[in-house]
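Example record

One chain of 264 residues, shown exactly as stored in the release files.
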Amino acid sequence: MLCSAQIVRYNAQASGETMKQASGTLLPALIAGFVAVLVGYTSSAAIIFQAAAAAGADAQQIGGWLSMLGLAMGVSSLGLSWYYRTPILTAWSTPGAALLVTSLPGTSLPEAVGVFIFASGLMLLCGVTGLFARLMRVIPPAICAAMLAGILLRFGLDAFGALQGNLPLAGTMCLTYLLARRLLPRYAIVLTLLAGLAVAAWQGAIAPIPLQGAIAPPAFIAPQFSLSALLGIGVPFFIVTMASQNAPGLPRSAPPAIRCPPRR
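Predicted structure tokens for this chain:
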């Protein structure tokens, strides 16, 4: 009886310690997830707009496009993370969207949809067959990191170019980021955003606009498969996405404790 009481007491203490550990790691995990989504949207949503406009989509279609992107990324992130018990966040391809901005003009919207389906099929094929995993074992991580650095170099240089146009705003944001990166690295992006909003409000650059709670309805667009568009846009889009985003992101964001097989 005494032994049973000690076991129950031990289990209760272990359970309490586990709950404390979980509560202690929940807030940083929520902040990390929020920052990841915030950075993804604020840094590349404009490129998605430009890519959709280059395909000939109107304002309503672009709104529906972003709505479906957010829904698909949210559902897939929740489902994959729950199934694999691993933090997995799906997102659009920023380098691929940048490529589409220059490649889609002159292409009809149905042909652009066909290009997306074709490139997505190639990516799915690489994941199912394990081809991507084999390529990752051959390609050195340094090369993948260098490709990612080449993509991000332009964004870093544009920050200094913004200093000429609006020194108080860009300077405050750059200084806040450098200080926060040194003192509070986990909150650097959020603090930089808040500092930028504060300076923009002080300058009177933020004007109140009426907000509507309506959700942009999705519009069905029948795909059209053109051989010239598939080869001229679909194949480069697939290569850029796999080589410039998926491959560099895998070794950079997969600690050994939560590593997920590349084919997944």
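Notes: Confidence is low (pLDDT under 50) at residues 1-22.
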